[in-house]
Every structure is written in structure tokens, then in C-alpha cells.
Write a structure and sequence with these properties.
The protein is mostly helical. It has a domain of 36 residues: 2-Layer Sandwich (Erythroid Transcription Factor GATA-1, Chain A). Helices cover 44% and strands 0% of the residues. The structure holds zinc ion.
Length: 64
């Protein structure tokens, strides 16, 4: 990895990271990543019924 000198390259566009927007180079890239993350969360279908059944079988373990 020749570009990993400081590990500070924007994961969105690859430009040098700016401290106020770490680990991104700009607010725009931070927003891009945030939107990506949010849409990923909202895209996950929730199946509460199945989760409760599993929780009963495992005896109250962390829901993950
Ligand atoms: Zn960037």
C-alpha cells in the first residue's frame, strides 16, 4: 500500500483528509458516506417476530 503513509485518504474520493472532516476530505464526502450509511440502515427489513423466537431459544443473549 504505497498511499498508506499516514492512513489519511478520503475513502470516498481518495483525496487527502482535512482535519475538520476526518476521515473525509470535505463535508460533501462526509455527506456521501452518511447518506450511504443511512440508506443501508433503512434498507434492512425488520422481522421482529423471528427475532423474538430466536431470543427465546438462546436464553436472552445480546440481540446481534
Ligand atoms: Zn473526498
Amino acid at each position: 500500500m504505497p498511499e498508506a503513509k499516514r492512513g489519511s485518504a478520503c475513502p470516498i474520493c481518495g483525496k487527502p483528509v482535512a482535519a475538520p472532516f476526518r476521515p473525509f476530505c470535505s463535508r460533501r464526502c462526509a455527506d456521501v458516506d452518511l447518506n450511504r450509511w443511512l440508506s443501508g440502515v433503512y434498507a434492512v427489513p425488520v422481522t421482529e417476530d423471528e427475532e423474538e423466537d430466536e431470543r427465546r431459544d438462546e436464553g436472552g443473549e445480546a440481540p446481534n
